[in-house]
Specification:
The chain is of the alpha/beta class. The chain folds into two domains: about 90 residues, Ribosomal protein L30/S12 (60s Ribosomal Protein L30, Chain: A); about 140 residues, Alpha/beta knot, CATH 3.40.1280. The strands form two sheets. Strands 7-6-5-9-8-10 form a six-stranded parallel sheet. Helix 4 links the parallel strand 2 and strand 3.
């Protein structure tokens, strides 16, 4: 049974301020917790779960702190509409701002603010083997519960850095920089890239002018039908499928 102090502490991690102060975040649901137990066991500080989940997964837990809770307690701390068996308190991952970009495709995200888009983009990057994502400082917090949920565990495998994006691009201009833009060259005419930085812009405003100016090439997704736009995550998936 959770104490009032434990309950308050766990609930506080739903807020960015507390996550930043504690260096912790919440990962929720069997699929995501299982990903962390397999790939990042050392990052997990505590696991809270229903008895049936514990009975089925006790062998994976090792020395991690484990607490049995009931469905009422799970419902009080869950960030999901339908609470799902287990959640973990996880240590934030160290990010490497000076990661080697040579012979790699790197994503640069300019003010991606929707948590669902952010999480899905991280998952897509992981699918295509992209190991570095550089985010503008005003992009969504990757440790927001909705972002973590949308990554489905990929957050543990991708190096994600928040920085002054304009400055970072100027420091890496020797690498080919491609920015998404309505007036850009069709991405299917670009071909496969050995290395490069792909800039994806804000959901409604696109890539900011000062960021766009850093690009060597503007790229676009040809429209065949009548849809007005694509969301940032869908656009990212289409672009990476052509260049990776």
């Amino acid at each position: 049974m959770l104490s009032k102090m434990q309950l308050k502490y766990i609930q506080s991690l739903g807020q960015k301020k507390s996550r930043d102060e504690e260096g912790l975040f919440i990962a929720e649901g069997p699929k995501i917790v299982d990903e962390f137990l397999i790939h990042s066991t050392g990052a997990i500080k505590q696991v809270y779960a229903l008895k049936n989940w514990i009975d089925e997964n006790k062998g994976k837990i090792g020395n991690t702190e484990l607490y049995e809770i009931d469905e009422t307690e799970l419902g009080r701390v869950s960030q999901l509409k339908t609470p799902n068996q287990v959640f973990a308190v996880v240590k934030k991952f160290e990010s490497n701002a000076s990661a080697d970009l040579k012979n790699k495709i790197t994503l640069a995200l300019d003010t991606i603010q929707d948590p669902g888009n952010m999480g899905t983009i991280i998952r897509i990057a992981d699918w295509f083997g992209i190991r570095n994502i550089i985010c503008s400082k005003d992009s969504a917090d990757i440790y927001n519960p909705k972002v973590v949920q949308a990554t489905m565990g990929s957050i543990a495998r991708v190096n994600i850095v928040y920085t002054d994006l304009q400055k970072w691009l100027s420091e890496n201009k020797s690498t080919g920089i491609y920015a998404t833009a309505v007036s850009g060259k069709p991405v299917n005419a670009i071909g496969k890239l050995k290395e490069g930085i792909i800039i994806v812009g804000n959901e409604s405003k696109g890539v900011h002018d000062e960021i766009l100016a850093a690009a060597n090439e503007k790229i676009s997704i040809p429209r065949i039908g009548n849809a007005e736009s694509l969301n940032a995550a869908v656009a990212t998936g289409i672009i990476l499928s052509h260049i990776c």
